[in-house]
Predict the structure.
Amino acid sequence: MGGKYGAIAEGASFRASSRERRSRAAIRRAHTRDASASSDRRPESLPLYPNRSTPRRSGRGWRVKLATISRLAVFAAATATSSWGQSSPTAAAQTVVASTAKRAKVPFGAGERMEYDVKFGALRVGNAHMEVVALDNLRGRPAWHTAFWVQGGNFLYRVNDVYESWMDAETLSSLRFVQELEEGGKDVERRFEIYPERAIFIQTSKKPQKEEKSVSQPLDDGSFLYFLRTIPLVVGETYDFDRYFRPDRNPVRIRVLRKERIKVPAGTFDAIVVQPIIKTKGIFSENGRAEVWLSDDERHIMLQLKSRLKFGSLNLYLKSYFQSPNS
């Protein structure tokens, strides 16, 4: 592989920077700290709406369930999104890069954080968090750094997965996608550098590294969610997007099903329900029947996710929301 992209791929700039690693470590520490807290101790957070009160405080199967949960929630995050601001429940979110570059208007910002209970049927099996970590500088351009992580299991099988995305703050195209999976004692890292200007991507965690065809406005699992928060959702409409960074997975289809009021641990909200479908096996296939509830306002915050699978239902419920301070 030649040219400047080949040189970059072979060089240190393709490896996680020290700040990225500190950021990722902070994410894991924050998640571990939250997970170890008592189940009836709720973190202090801003309510989604000022006039609503804070909620009252009050073997193989595990491998399939929890690994599926992490992949499910990551795309659900990628099918929800729309506004910017800056505040942070973790130190990592405070590393906001100042930039005068033009930015797309969005409904999220650095420091926005959502926390979820993860259930398999009626059984609570873990926690999931989704956060806008910071506005970073990647390859000389401002990029939103987002993270989704899920942790849970039992004494037989544990999962601690982190999915990170970097997307161009102006075009909302994906620039980098990282998966760090700790499942059942096995660690896997997948790292993709994505170049919208050349419509290619390189999986830098795999040898030999090679350029693979992508699309001109690519999105990964995480950035898809934030992109979707920026578009209007009309009940009865179906939206097709040829923007997934792996072309063979396109189109990604979003069906807008209905509106309804729902109750989750964070409160009672008006919601719009969407069904994401991608060309893959599992939850988001046409047979997966996954549905995502988004707040029926300009922010499109993911309130709830449910899916019906052969071995039962996997569900996420919003329990806490930290708003970006500049939202």
About this structure: The longest helix spans residues 18-36. Confidence is low (pLDDT under 50) at residues 4-18, 32-64, 77-100. The first strand starts at residue 113 and ends at 120.
